[in-house]
Design brief:
The complex is a heterodimer.
Chain A: E1 4-13, E2 16-26, E3 31-35, H1 42-49, E4 57-62, E5 65-69, H2 74-78, H3 81-85, E6 88-91, H4 103-115, H5 125-142, H6 158-171, E7 176-180, H7 188-203, E8 208-211, H8 215-221, E9 224-229, E10 232-237, H9 239-244, H10 249-260
Chain B: H1 2-39, H2 43-58, H3 61-76, H4 85-114, H5 117-125, H6 130-160, H7 172-183, H8 187-213
Helix pairs in contact in B: 1-2, 1-4, 1-7, 2-4, 3-4, 4-6, 5-6, 6-8, 7-8
Amino acid sequence: MAILEVNDISKNFGSTTVLHKVSFSLEEGSALAIIGSSGSGKTTLLRCLNFLERPDNGSIVVRGETLFDASMPFKEQEKGLRTKRLHFGMVFQSFNLFPQYTALENVTLAEGLLAKEREDYKQNKKTICEQIEKHGRELLDQMGLADRMTHYPHQLSGGQQQRVAIARALALKPDILCFDEPTSALDPELTGEVLKVIRGLAEQRTTMIIVTHEMAFARDVSDKLIFMDDGVIVEQGDPKQVIDHPREERTRQFLTRYAQG
Amino acid sequence: MFWSVTQSLLGGLLTTFQIFLFTLLFALPLGLILAFGSMTRFKPLRCLVQVLVWIIRGTPLMLQLIIIFYGPGLWLGHNIWSGNEAGRITATVVAFSINYACYFSVIFRGGIEGVPAGQREAGQVLGMTKSQIFFKVTLLQMVKRVVPPMSNEIITLVKDTSLARIIAAYELTFAGYSFMKSNGLTWPLFYTGVFYLLFVGILTLLFNHIERRLDYFR
């Protein structure tokens, strides 16, 4: 069974249609890449999955549980929104690290707040906090940031900040990790270190959705690729097949434009 | 003479300080509440707050003080402020708190809106509640942004306390002025100025300290 099923998601901003009947599914442990030009709706799709936008139509099902259905009454949609969000992790284009916290605090903050809701929090406060900190350190270590734990975001390079952001998203162990153009705000020489980390996650079979402009990377790392244009999925399938031998004329045009820079 | 002037001015300073301290104590939280009111999606409340801020910022504080002090006695037939010094100070604090809360609310709103939307969204996707996002993410970033404009307002408040003289509250300026009226002395007026300068000087140091303390992040 697919871990994620997205059915007929549509989204309008005023009279502009940003997404139109977008449907796809994702297998556990696989990586999905979404490509397409700016304004094609890629980011809005990720924002819908993370409940930062409310789709006007369609449904989102994770592990067989319907998290969102536009036909549900509004109250039903809002219910347990926080828990629903935790199925997804999100890495933003502009990192959005919390500037007043160190790298480690950025990673552990949310987990610490969630732990406070546990019934045994008061009795085992010390052990729980130690566990959370240990977990945070492990994640930063995994990102190659062992010597940057106590640095504040402004003391880190863009690539380092984005790796902290990835650790922060991983800390809550989401079912599906979403990347919204994770390297678009980085200087070219810094994209490599971030892509390397994402590649490592793919090798560990982390379920991911990656919106990206790095075509070679998408072709290489993902198990499935979606090309979007004007709010619709034009083509989806095996990444090598879509990029090397696109079936649709619009995909071909996009890839040609892209290759010409 | 110098000692009796000093004593009298210290008495006035105490009143000035009380007005200053209690006004801050009430106006800061009230300002934050008004800031939320002015940003709410619930339109009637938003409009109400906007009209209140317009009226309070659009009329002199002295006029507001006179209305709040004399109004109840004239409309209700009995004075809700006791006729002694404490009653005058209380009325002053009420008028000042409302007035300053309105100015503070605009500064707070600017501070909150100045925090990038991405910060809130990052909190949301990490499963934080609205209040967790405000207290753990937004608040400190807002405080950092509002310290410079707040220091301006708070320094203005120190000197605005002299308006309490209009309802005969015996504050610092009143104390200095009384020596000119009764003894024809002008030097106590300059001496009074020194008290204000020291007061504001200490506040300036305090605000510099706060700004430095918040300098560790950007």
